[in-house]
Every structure is written in C-alpha cells, then in structure tokens.
Amino acid sequence: MNDDARPTGPSPDLTAVLAGIERTNELLTRVLAEVATTPSTHAAFVDAGYVYAAAGRLVAGTEDRRAFELDAEGLIEAFIDKARTIFPDSRLLRVYWYDGARRRIHTMEQQRVAELPDVKVRLGNLNANNQQKGVDSLIRSDLESLARHRAISDAVLIGGDEDLVSAVEAAQGYGARVHLWGIEAVGGRNQAEPLLWEVDSQRTFDLEFCKPYVTRRTVVPHEHGDAAADGTGNGGTAPTRDEVRFVGARVAARWLGERGVPWVTELLPGHPYLPGAVDQELLTAAEALLHHSLRGHADLRRVLRDGFWEHVQAQG
Questions:
Q1: Which residue of 4, 9, 92, 98 sits 20 to 30 Å from the alpha carbon of 255, by its own alpha carbon?
Q2: CB 217 within 8 A of CB 67
Q3: SS3 of 11, please?
Q4: Which of 32-46, 142-156, 174-188 has the lowest mean pLDDT?
C-alpha cells in the first residue's frame, strides 16, 4: 500500500472510546459539582433514659426520675446549639428523642417534648420494673436507615449502651460519621468501652453544662398535691400566653438597654433559636418577673421566645 493512502486520524473504534471517555468525564464533573453544592446534614439520636440517669446522678445525686425535674426542652436546645457550633456548614435534620412509656402511650412530659420543633419522639416500652425495652433497636433502625439513604452525613449519638455498636458500624459503612456525646460520670464510666472505641469522635458534658437543666424536687410527684404533680413547684394558676409574651418583650427591652443593640442583634442569625446559655438566662429572668416556673411548659416557653424575638426584630 502506498504510504500516502494510509488513514491519518484515529480508527472508528478509538473514536468511539474517546467519545465515551469524554461523556463519562462530563457526567463525573456534573456529579462532583452537585455534591459540592449539597449541604451536609446532621441528626441527633438521644437515649432519654441515659440522659435522665446520667444527668440526675451528676446533678441531683440520684437516677430516680421522681426525685428531680429535667428541663428536656432546654437541654435539647443546648444540644442543638452545640451541634451548630461543631457542624457550622451543616443543617439539622432533626433530633430523635428515644424514651420508654407503658404501652407506648406518651406521658404529659413526652407530649411536651414531641411538640418541640425539629424533635421526633420515639417510644419503646416500659416493663414492670420501669426498664426501657426496645429503645436500642429503634435507635439502631433509624441511624442505619438514615445513613443508608444518605439523609445524614454526621450522626450525634447521645447514649452509652454497648448494643449500639452495630448501629455505629453500619452507619459508618454507609459513609456517615458518628459522634458520641455523653454526660460526665460521677465515678468510673457510664458509656460502654466498645462503643467509645468505634465512634469517630467523643465529647463529654460536665456538671456546669448540665446543672441549669436539672432541679431536685422537694416532694415526690403525685403524692403531695397538684403543685408537686406537674413537677413545677407552682401552686397558683399559670400565666396567660399574653402575659408571657409581654415578659419576653420586656426582657428583650431591658437587655437592649443594658447590653446595647449590637449585642442583642448578634442573635438574629440564629432565629428562631437562642444559644443555650442565653435561652436559660431568658427563662430565669422571665420566671423572676412572672413569679411562676415555666419549666415543663414547652408552649409557654415558645411564647416567651416569640415575645423576645418580636421586640428584638422590631429594633433591628
């Protein structure tokens, strides 16, 4: 064959291969661009039984729920606030609150928690000895399912049972990172070592963190009258929503005068949430003005924040 007659371009087979590679590269570029713009998502999985026992032991010296009141709403918001600082570029999917109840029927306290925004209450059973049954399996199911469906990139696990190790391993197998949070133990440990070994990071909350959310009761609920039965220590009628809203605005006005507009308006990017410490300060100030405890009244606490935010935003 004459050299001048030989083909100068790639063969048809090579052309097809090159075209396929180019299409693949374009597809990968689009996928990577989509992944880069997809925000990370985190969720918190809270074993309420662990939290009550550990916080009660640390602050009140007892694990008996009847002997102390846990401000579950305030503590959940503190967990949310802490997660926001640790995962600043991630959005919260929700907080899962796992607790036990007889015949899986919500108690009044669990109903109040269930009403909170971004919180999902999941109930296991309580046996005759007030021991939770089925809670660990609920945590395992939710954690593994969300990780498998790529619904979360980070999972905050607040608990201590060794039975959760398999859930941690499964979630990690699907690409999620699992972060174990715990409450300081009075002596020894209150989280299983195998669980500590498997997670991606650990964090422990100390007495100073937990103290604002635990209050020892002076009487046992349901045994000494209505004031004890609701765990508030209030003997009188609860304030109205309008009264609580007004007090929220009043505290905001006082803080604006004392601390200046810049300090208060720094809170605006976090709306409708307040940092845990600020939220507790607002609660304490409002209770002093109302002469009535709002702990255990999730609806009134939301109204309190609404009144606070309305005044702040009106000045911003």
A1: 92
A2: yes
A3: coil
A4: 32-46
Which residues contact residue 180 at a Cβ distance below 8 angstroms, ignoring those fewer than 6 apart?
157, 158, 159, 191, 195, 196, 199, 201, 202, 203
Nearest Cα neighbor of 55 from 199, 269, 213, 244 is 213
Count CB-CB contacts under 10 A for residue 278.
16
The runs of H, that is alpha helices, within 43-158 are 48-55, 72-86, 108-114, 135-148
Q: What kind and span of H or E run contains 123?
A: strand 119-126
Under DSSP, is residue 57 helix (H, G, I), strand (E, B) or coil? helix
For 210, phi then psi, to 5°, come to: -85, -25
Radius of gyration (C-alpha) of the chain in whole angstroms: 26
Whether the full predicted model's pTM is greater than 0.70, yes or no, is no
> What's the pLDDT at 112?
87
Peptide bond into 272 cis (omega under 30): yes
**What residue spans of 38-93 are helical by DSSP H?**
48-55, 72-86
Helix 135-148 / helix 165-173 crossing angle, nearest 10 deg: 10
Alpha-carbon span 126 to 138, nearest angstrom: 14
Residues 6+ apart with CB under 8 A from 219: 228
In tens, the pLDDT along 66-109 reads: 888 899 999 999 999 999 999 988 999 999 999 887 777 777 88
**How big, in percent rounded to 5, are the helix, strand and coil portions of the chain?**
55, 15, 30
What is the set of domains in the chain, with CATH numbers? 40-216 (3.40.50.1010), 241-315 (no CATH)
